[in-house]
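Q&A FORM
Asked by: J.P.
Topic: structure of Thiolase C-terminal domain-containing protein

PROVIDED:
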Amino acid sequence: MIDLSGKAAIAGVFESPRRDALRVHPFALQMECILGALDDAGLTLKDVDGLCAASGDWAEGGSTMDVVELAEYIGIAPTYVNSTDVGGCSYILQAGQAAAAIATGLAEVVVISYAACPRWWPLSSPSFDPFVFPAGPGQYEIPYAPTLISTYGLFARRHMDLYGTTPEQLAQVAVTFREHAAKNPDARLRKPITVDDVLASPMIASPLHRLDCCVVTDGGGAVVMTSRERARDLKKLPVHLIGYGAAVARTQNSQIPDDLTTPAALSGPRAFAMAGVTPGEIDVAQIYDAFTITPMLALEDLGFCGRGESGAFVADGNLTLGGSLPTNTDGGGLSSNHPGKRGIFTLIESVRQLRGEGPGVQVPDARIALAHGLGGTFCSAATAILAR
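REPLIED BY: S.T.
REPLY: Here is the structure written out as tokens.
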């Protein structure tokens, strides 16, 4: 156990004096409290690199993406976030976890925040989701009924318009990962496909065809972590986490940067800096691929190619077994499995590659691997660098 005694302290506090906050969104109350506590500590938002928030009760204006939305609302990109929700004691629990984050260098200034407006929040509404309710952050987009796939289609279309990316280049992502899946006996889809096959498949959300979209499967996975010392005495070759970075950005499409930068542009450099390696030293990568546009944006933000150059990077065969960056060697979400949240599988396949245990395609003598995932529609990102 890490001894947290004396490793962290509470430097500022603030309680809102409001007891009736009619038509005030809970995020606005949280902003008031955060600024008040920072002022009490003699700090500003620029000093904050950690954020904890858990407002899971719909009637209190919370959601599963609450901490991401709150970070966007107050205008910060924290290196450490925590949305653990165990009910009324959540914020005491988060204080302990924040102390651990501070003690281990994951953050220097962590804000723990909570606010709710149950006296007026529409308890009788068909949906308590603050993204849906007109007073919430989604009021400018929800009326247009965006879907997950249509949102990714917007990303792809924007990339085409900005950088000349072609449908054929998008399709090459699916073709490459299907090549890898063909040798994985557990992959959902193993039959080889061509670029023409992708372009001939039904259009789902322009410019994304059916084969530009991930498979839908059941599935699961688990990862066991322990100390470096104990791992040496266990059954398998230990694979060490040498770099890690996380970031949150936004939830609303209207807040997407003009150049399509995603939170990977923050999580990636943080992971590389911690690991002391560069993108050119990565032997194999596992990158979240819910749609063909997904890994393309990650390749740019993680530094494997320049802004707008991912289409050509993929078309040149760099993601194949013989390329400069073999990627999604198990077939990825486009061909192997995608039960909903695929981040854990990027870790599992990274470990298998570094052990030489790839179920299908195996990168020879791989020593450094990158696992990268995202949340929502590029709302958050996490990057891990693993090594033998």
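FOLLOW-UP: Residues 213 and 291 are 5 Å apart (CA to CA).
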